Predict the 3D structure of the following.
Amino acid sequence: MSFDLDAFISYAHMDNVGLIEGHKGWVTNLHRALEIKVGQFLGKQPQIWRDPKLTGDDVFADILADRLRHVAVLISVVSPCYVRSEWARRELVEFWKAAEQQGGVHFHNKARIFKVLKTPVRLEMHPPELQPLLGYEFFNVDPETGRIRELDEVFGVEAQRDFWMKLDDLAHDICALLEMIEGSDIAVSPDAQVTHARVAKEAVFLAEATIDVWEQHEMIRRDLQQHGYTVLPASGLPLTASEMTTSLREDLARCRMSIHMVGKNYAIVPEGSTESLPEIQSELAIERGKHGGFSRLIWLPSGLHVEDERQRAFVEKLRMDPRIQTGADLLETSVEDLRTVIQDLLKLSQEPVLEASASTTSGRKSAQVYFIYDQRDAGVTSPWADFLFDRGFEVIHPVFEGDEAEIREYHEENLRVCDGVLILYGAANELWVRRKLRELQKSAGYGRTKPAHSVAVSLVTPKTIEKERFRTHDAMLIQQFGDFSPDPLLPFIACLKS
């Protein structure tokens, strides 16, 4: 495909009236900002066009319909005025018709229409062509009052900052699609398409979140997309529970990882369900995890205080239910820490399995992991030790035989010099685990000068009530009842890497 224009902005002209006399309109500012950011990302001046003169009363010009056939991307600025505008409706229909003649509105599973939500409009009022699209929300919602405020510079520095953050997302996605379209012209055969096409990274499922954590949610989405990952769900979800479940299952099947960001608010309950959307997503992710090759990351903001009884029950279930925690890592930390863990996990999922030889030959010292376990578990530790070693770590084992003073000195030395500690909670009891954690806290007294350890407790068979209720703030908990699986260890390795 080849187009004369990169993008056309379709809007209702009432939405471009400046709120302050003499100030430029909102759409004018959007247009200018897109030209700057898309140009910076593309490395050249983009051709973005809009009609600044015509009004909704004008006859739809043939020249405009013809021009829409030469546009790569349509940007629809949705507002109450837009959905009532016959002119905007005609622009959308004409672009859609032209796109269908050019092979379809979707190009490599990416829509050539971008929905910019200037102000909220109920989904059923959106034109049918726009309803499946997720959209870019250029407004904020006060979580306490529910009041809507557009991202306009007249509302202050914070609104202006949020405008540019949203604009950055939009420009990034437009640029990515334009590069894909431009790159498609290079290929002359199916084989050439494989050679020249940009290699896409794996998909990540980012569960829908409530408004109180939406800003953090969009920050994570932006991070993932800027690093080349496909983020699913990619469009609006169906409204009924049965159709929504089908759609979510299809998205999860394409992913190796899901991220669930849970806040203080209880989310919407889809029609035909008794559970909220986050609860449904959590259950489907657990179901997906049973097929293997999949990990879940659950995030709660540090210091989370929940008043809604339904949400409180859901949060406690996430914290306590072993079925939910199996194959998942629960983080109660800052969003910055979450960003670090996500990126490290995704890097690990794409690394070659064997790294030890490379680190040795290059002369770099491998990170040391002190693998602590009870002597009764010595015969079952090989899968954990082998996995850590194959990931490039030097694995230090405890010593059980010899002079007691020498064993104690060896143990304290390991606590002093190691980078991370993995405690295997198997045949021993909880008192033994607590004692090991206290010894870790005393490591500074042994002369440790390194940063704090990365610490994890791996709960393995035999499965007991004592283990299921075990909780601590001093270590990452990894449930691995049953056969050994490497996926639950990835968050621990990510902490070691970071």
